[in-house]
Amino acid sequence: MTTESDVDNASSEAFERVVLITGAGSGIGAALARRIAAPRTALMLHARGADQASRERLTQVAADCSANGATCATVFGDFAERGAAEHVVHQTLANFGALDQLVANAGHAQRQTFQALDPDALNDSFSAMPAAFAALVKRATPALETSRRGRVVALSSFVAHRYRADTPFAATAAAKAALESLAKTAAAELARHGVTVNCVAPGYTRKDRGPSAENAAVWTRAAESTPLGHVAEPADIAALIAFLLSDDARHITGQVIHVDGGLTLG
Question: Which domain, by its residues, includes 97?
Fold first, then answer.
């Protein structure tokens, strides 16, 4: 677990908000970071950092956000490892002196049938998603409770709501369903402090890396199964998250909001 920073114990008074985004090196996390980057916004950008390419991607996102006026720092850590989530929040507080908004975006999807499900796959999914989310929020709670703009947004998925034998996601679906349940419990407990907690559940969303990114057939099938006839771009999901982080969304909490082109209609 490592941290890279261009700031040195910055005063929280210098920022209108401090936002931690996990899984910010690509896809939805990167799109969100670029969307909300602005002067007087501090961004702690996280990625697993499994290889040099991953680290370089996050560094580029941070550079893009800095060019838009944001103050950025980066941190790497694998949420399947004990203590990684707490470390990421600790580094955010150490760098910026505050934490106003948390976006728990890091996660993965694994196609696996129920019959093929093994304990290791289930444990890995729960460690990396609902357990990491719980650790992040628990460590961040004291800071969130003192913020005037306290927000938590967790990324769920349509796989927790749409079950088909030809597209099985046994472990991922279970983990995302648990994530949504934890988010609602957190929403109930943090409401008295004015902190909102919501989930965003994307449908098929185009990837900018990975084995399926350039597989046209995969995306054609995904578009055909979506009522609107096309898959989402990361920016489509980032737009809703940015709204949920805004002052205009202060009365929305405990919700799971789908951005899936009608995929979960029936």
Answer: 2-259
CA distance 172 to 169: 5
Count of domains for the chain: 1
Q: Is residue 73 part of a domain?
A: yes
CATH of the domain at 217: 3.40.50.720
Residue 231 and residue 87: Cα distance in Å, rounded? 35
How is residue 207 written in tokens?
């990837």
Distance CA 266, CA 171 (A): 22
Listing DSSP states for 193-220 in one string gives GT-EEEEEEE-SB--SSSTTTT-HHHHH
Is residue 67 in a domain? Answer: yes
Which phi and psi angles does 80 have, rounded to 5°? -75, -15
Kindly report, residue by residue over 147-194, the tens digit of the pLDDT. Answer: 999 999 999 999 999 999 988 999 999 999 999 999 999 999 999 999
